[in-house]
What we know:
By secondary structure, this protein is α/β, with parallel strands linked by helices.
Amino acid sequence: MSQTLFEKSHVGRHGIKLPSLDVPQVSLDSSLLRSQKANLPELSELDVVRHFTELSNKNFSIDANFYPLGSCTMKYNPKVQERIAALEGFSAPHPHLITNNQVDAIQGSLQVIKELEGYLKEIVGMDHFTLTPQAGAHGEMTGLMLIGAYHKKKGNKKKYVIIPDSAHGTNPATASMVDYEVITVKSGAKGDMDLEAFKAVMSDEVAAVMITVPNTLGLFNPNIKEICDIAHSYDALMYYDGANLNAILGTIRPGDVGFDVVHLNLHKTFATPHGGGGPGAGPVGVKECLREFLPDLGVEKSSESYIFETPNPTTIGKISPFFGNYLVLIKAYAYMKVLGSDGMINVSKKAVLNANYVLAKLKPYFDYEFEGFCMHECVLSAASLAKDGVRALDIAKYLLDFGLHAPTIYFPLIVKEAIMIEPTESESKETIDYFCQKVIDAVELAKNDPSAFVNFPMTLPISRADETKAARELNIRFNCCG
């Protein structure tokens, strides 16, 4: 176990010497002063550099390890995007140039915003976009608020949102936050939302159908056009959860199928690092019928310059300061520019190819309930192995010892002992073969010596934490003062 900086501290050791103050001293109220000196660690610069380098080497990262996290699209992020986003013209302008309407100073940034909106409209088949939502769930909330404003203006009395049981957890949570009741529709035998069950709950009180295509099982719903048509016949709107756009990028446009609202996880599909909970960006695209309700910050081109749009009086208002996580938008823009249309089509083709390669190699070793091909990810089940004492969790822990991040497990909830794998388009055949072989090795070990799994992982700082105790009695505080 690594020592903390406090444990490595040595009295009198210095890493930096500060110059004399060049500002006048100010007397502070004694009640604001410490009664004793702060107990800060004393270290040299080299001590600090080595400490944090050691910690960084313990981390899993996409630059060093394979991240087959299903439903999360943790793919490699080209470094050119980071360099472009770091250019002074993008990173240095003060955000209040927007609030003070000083458009002359930020013409380049506004041009990027407007062009990115255009690219996104073309990619998903929407008429308009807002780039201000700061994450996927924030985009979901924005989209449902737009739907609510639409129904309110029309005088529609709507109270329900229909969501499949395979949905991301944010879908029902977001619907509830904007005061809709959720109707959950079960999945059918083929893994898509049961069409007859959907028809049975559809009514004039349904505001929207919120669905991910392909879904979290990695399967494309063949009835999606019919579902859109049925929803529209009740004046319900179709909401597209864009978390899995990686699977259909450049191949099919949600707007052409019949969706009215789309949110996109730019930090997933368009390659911005998003480990550790952020940063994200969740732009929302809409059809013409929802344009008037869009948030109050947009860009338009007037003659030869870019200016801010005048908000519609029916706007839902401000949902984010400035342009949200602006530099994430810049990285997505750069990613699109580098790839071009053919490159983005190739992204989805390779993502689907890699996932089906994984499925073909691992399906003989697990339970798999569905027929045919998957899309960008596949969901296997370790239910049979669990009967003999080796669960999905055990397989995941085993893989950590071989430089592999564990795949997503126990999601979606409708698959027992789920193991959800998304290789992404970035990974080579050699990497995927290595991963698959280690999974197969784990299955063989499970058959021959299931008790061995209590020891995995064996190469990391800790092995098996008491998960219940860690969740209910979390204590990450270090007592630096004895």
